[in-house]
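Researcher: I'm preparing a figure for a lab meeting and need a structural model of a single chain. I don't have an experimental structure, so a prediction will have to do for now. The sequence is pasted below. Please return the structure as tokens so I can convert it later.
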Amino acid sequence: MTILYRTRVTAIGGRSGTVRSDDGALELQLAMPEELGGRGGATNPEQLFAAGYAACFGNAVIHVTRVRADKVRDNDIDVVGEVGLIGNGQGGFGLAVTLNVTIAGLDQAQAEEIVQAAHMVCPYSNAVKGNIDVQLNVATR
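Model: Understood. Here is the structure written out token by token.
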């Protein structure tokens, strides 16, 4: 398998540390969320995962429509990613994901069909398949 793109990010200090990409484009302080007993005030792994998944899924929608008559423009798609940390019942943790996808200029049936197709091609969706239940909510505007 040919790797199309690879990045490298180093995390130091866990949830209360830092993350930095090798190219320096990403450099962030991390903080445990207040809801988990931390100080808050900085990003956390769940926010980063939600951001990455939402952006990637939005692009998957764009990709799917490039070969269709009902193309959508980049700014016609909003994806709000919600990632929750949950207990797995075995002393560990899991994630719960909801993607709220809004697409302008399509009817509901078209939008739902495109979102389902995007879910099949999105690398994040494929990575979590069988491990994380992803709820897809689709709306039009």
